Amino acid sequence: MGGLTKEWFLLLVRQIFHTDYGMFSFMKDSRCHWFSSWKCDNYSEFQMVGTLMGLAVYNSIALDIHFPLYCYRKLLTPPTVPSDPNAFVGMATATLDDLQQVMPDLAHGLSELLSYEGNIEEDFYLNFQVFQEEMGVVKSYNLKPGGDKIPVNKQNRKEYVQLYIDFLLNKSIYKQFAAFYHGFHSVCASDALM
């Protein structure tokens, strides 16, 4: 059943994905793991985790890791590693359904915003800015230049939702996921994942 190799992978993965370590968050509502958006100086840990996941796939070892399907789509974007090390990787187009897999409550709220018939500007008082907690500190990010000064209304709410989803699932975790992507693909070709 895998023996010592499988046990080694299971113990290592259990430690890496522990929330105290801070690399991954366990989303209670969706019961899946997602990349933490905290910024660090060295992303080699994410590359190491990607390499370990690639080794597990290569060795046909099933691990108790619950990534949303969107994560696997990101791993296949692009399906082969570009020759240019600075090329963008893992930037798959994200939808409300993809966010639903990771953060169902937020996806529900954004869906209600899209169907809201009242005065969005006065009732919600939103702008093109998001707030995220990172290591106990709340930080604000503009979804587009000058976003803190652009109110969300009926005309631009679809753009707001799309930029918010892209920020959460792509931009806020880009460096973490890019390192993970390169680590995974250094061991496991994408046709195995397909």
From TrEMBL:
Keyword field contains Cytoplasm: no
Enzyme kind, highest EC tier: transferase
Keywords for this protein: Transferase, Ubl conjugation pathway
Catalytic activity: S-ubiquitinyl-[E2 ubiquitin-conjugating enzyme]-L-cysteine + [acceptor protein]-L-lysine = [E2 ubiquitin-conjugating enzyme]-L-cysteine + N(6)-ubiquitinyl-[acceptor protein]-L-lysine
Keyword S-adenosyl-L-methionine: no
Name of the protein described by the UniProt record: HECT-type E3 ubiquitin transferase
Documented EC number(s): 2.3.2.26
Pfam families, alphabetized: HECT
Domain HECT: 1-194
InterPro entries: E3A/B/C-like, HECT_dom, Hect_E3_ubiquitin_ligase
Upper taxonomic lineage: Eukaryota, Metazoa, Chordata, Craniata, Vertebrata
PROSITE patterns named among the record's database cross-references: HECT (PS50237)
Organism: Characodon lateralis
